[in-house]
Amino acid sequence: MLSYSIIKSLLLPPGILILLLIAAFLLVRGVLGRLLLFAALSIFTLMSLSPVATLLMEPLEPYSALGTTTPIPSTAQAIVILSSGRMTNAPEYGGDTLDDLSLRRVRYGALLQRQTELPIYVSGGRLPTETQSLAELIAAVLRNEYGITVAGIESNSQTTWENAEYTAQLLKPLGITHILLVSDAWHLPRAVEAFTNNGLIVTPAPTGFIHHSGWQQELTARNWLPSARAFQLSYYAIHEHLGRVWYQIRGWQRESSAPAAES
Asked: Which of 16, 36, 124, 145 lies most in the core, judged by the most C-beta atoms within 10 Å?
C-alpha cells in the first residue's frame, strides 16, 4: 500500500510538479538559473509536506477548544461568526453558497448557540459583482439548516480588520462588549487582536484545528509524501503569519497618528 501511495503522490500534483522541477534543475545551465530553480523546488516541496504545514500552523493555534478544555465564560454576551469565502453559482443550491471553511464555522457557531443560548451576529461582506454578502449567506444557512435566526448582520467588511471594526460599531451601541469569536483556530490570533483593538472583550472559539498535542509522534512515512492539502495548509499558514505582521504595522500606524489627530 505504501508503494501505491508513493506512485500516486508522485503522479498527481504537487508531486509531478516537483519531479518536473527536479528535471529542470538537472537540465538547466547557468548558476543563476539553477539557484532560482533550486529555491523554487525547495520552497514548493517543503510547502507540500504535511509535517511542514503543521509546523507552520502550530504557533497560529494557541487557543484551546472552548467548552471542553476551556470553559465558556458566563460573562459572554454574544457569539460572532466570521465568514471565510463562498462557492459561486453552485448549481445544486441555485446560486452562491458558503465554502467549506465558512460552513465549519457556522456549524460550530450553531453548536455554541445551543449550549449558551447567546445571540449570534455574523460578519462578512461582498464584492461589487456579488448580490449577497457572506454574512447574508451565513444567516440563511443558520436559519434554513439549523433553525437559528441571527440577531444582527455586518455585511460591509472585506477583511478581518474590517470585520472587527464594523462589528464593534454594530455591537457597542447594543451594550455588547464580551463576545465568543468563532473562526478557524489558525485565523483566530489575528482576529482576536483586531477585535480587541476595537474595544471588545474576546473569548476565542476556535474550530478546524490542524495540529494537536503529540502529533509529531504519530508521523508515518505517508506524512512525508507531497500532497495538495499540505500545500493549501502551508498557504493559509503563511498568509496568516504575514497578515499578523501587516496588522501589527497598521496598529503602530494608528497609535502614532492618534496624538496628531487629537491635537
From this structure: 124
**Start-end of CATH 3.40.50.620 domains in the chain:** 65-207
CATH hierarchy code of domain 65-207: 3.40.50.620
**Residue linked to cell 500534483:** 13
Q: How far is the CA of 79 from the CAs of 64, 101, 152, 230, in angstroms? A: 17, 17, 10, 31
What's the pLDDT tens digit per position in 89-143? 999 999 999 999 999 999 999 999 999 999 999 999 999 999 999 999 999 999 9
For 20, the grid coordinates are 518536473
pTM of the model: 0.88
Q: For the chain, what's the residue count?
A: 263
